[in-house]
């Protein structure tokens, strides 16, 4: 039932574009907590080429993904169809964080839809394994619409608040790994 693919071809891209959400999984190298995050807003994920994808990382309640990527780069993205056509697609690879103050950010930003307030970074993933599975036990759900709450919340926040969060609650993971803290540059050996 499971199949591995050599690249993100047209049908796989169409499947990805049809999904209203995706999941991101990362973990620290030793000990610590595994992180699994649901991500919404369909226009925040982009296939850049047959082996590269990216998503807009919006400010949220934690910063585990960024911390784990800074430490070891490992990441898995999962798409799951909740329609009549059951399917799970996983993208395994190495991720890197591109902050808004990085010169590459503006070019990457052109791959996404509307402007979302509260963009913290773009996460770029070099995909080294693409595999699907049946999803036969995944329940049926109907997509009602995008939940506008996060965008509405971010739109009310002043830029200074986002700046404070970089060194504050977005400075480190819950396990104490550095994330957006400007006093801790990216370690050498991790893809930038």
From TrEMBL:
It comes from the Bacteria. SUPFAM superfamilies: FMN-binding split barrel. Pfam families: PNPOx_N. Transmembrane segments: none annotated. InterPro entries: Pyridox_Oxase_N (IPR011576), Split_barrel_FMN-bd (IPR012349). Residues 163-192 are annotated as: Disordered. Residues 12-131 form the Pyridoxamine 5'-phosphate oxidase N-terminal domain. Coiled coil: none annotated. PANTHER family: PYRIDOXAMINE PHOSPHATE OXIDASE FAMILY PROTEIN (AFU_ORTHOLOGUE AFUA_6G11440). This is Pyridoxamine 5'-phosphate oxidase N-terminal domain-containing protein. It comes from Nocardia jinanensis.
């Amino acid at each position: 039932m499971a199949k591995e693919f050599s690249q993100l071809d047209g049908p796989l891209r169409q499947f990805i574009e049809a999904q209203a959400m995706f999941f991101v999984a990362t973990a620290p190298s030793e000990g610590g907590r595994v992180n699994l995050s649901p991500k919404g807003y369909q226009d925040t994920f982009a296939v850049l080429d047959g082996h590269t994808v990216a998503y807009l990382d919006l400010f949220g309640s934690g910063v585990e993904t960024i911390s784990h990527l800074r430490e070891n780069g490992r990441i898995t993205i999962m798409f799951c169809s909740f329609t009549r056509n059951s399917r799970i697609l996983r993208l395994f690879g190495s991720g890197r964080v591109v902050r808004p103050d990085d010169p590459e950010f503006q070019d990457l930003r052109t791959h996404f839809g509307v402007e979302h307030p509260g963009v913290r970074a773009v996460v770029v993933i070099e995909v080294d394994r693409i595999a699907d599975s049946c999803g036969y036990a995944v329940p049926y759900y109907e997509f009602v619409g995008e939940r506008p709450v996060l965008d509405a919340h971010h739109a009310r926040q002043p830029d200074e608040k986002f700046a404070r969060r970089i060194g504050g609650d977005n400075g480190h993971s819950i396990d104490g790994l550095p994330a957006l803290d400007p006093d801790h540059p990216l370690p050498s050996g991790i893809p930038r």
